[in-house]
Write a structure and sequence with these properties.
Elements: H1 5-13, E1 18-22, H2 23-30, H3 36-40, H4 42-45, H5 50-54, E2 61-67, E3 72-77, H6 92-107, H7 113-124
Antiparallel strand pairs: 1-3, 2-3
């Protein structure tokens, strides 16, 4: 089980769309001090990082802002695109909307190129 499970639960149970937390608040939630790299490097909080892909991204949360001088991180709730959903076929309008969301996630570097192309291929295969 992830040592950041409590942060995942905190985000999952929140009804807010945006949550701004001081690093010390994140530490209070998880119950231990964050590593020094969390205080120094944007990569630690990146939505494509190991922590993000195990903790906040799978439940639809993304880091939208971080300020190292003020020591805070801002999480934003976004719609999760479930490409594995058992949908037989979709119309072109639905496909276009999903492709736009998928492209936005790629542009914001929430998903990498490989994931983007894989999900795009699945989506295009579901068009009526």
């Amino acid at each position: 089980m992830s040592k950041y499970r409590r942060l995942k639960e905190y985000l999952f149970n929140s009804k807010k769309k945006i949550i701004k937390l001081k690093f010390s608040q994140v530490e209070d939630i998880v119950g231990f001090k964050l590593p020094e790299s969390a205080y120094l490097y944007r990569a630690w909080w990146a939505n494509s990082s190991h922590n993000a892909l195990r903790v906040w991204v799978p439940i639809g949360w993304y880091v939208s802002d971080i300020d190292f001088s003020k020591k805070y991180v801002e999480f934003e709730k976004r719609e999760v695109i479930d490409m594995n959903k058992k949908v037989k076929k979709i119309n072109a309008g639905q496909a276009l909307k999903l492709l736009e969301k998928l492209h936005a996630l790629h542009d914001q570097r929430v998903i990498n190129e490989r994931t983007y192309l894989e999900k795009k291929k699945v989506l295009l295969g579901k068009i009526k």
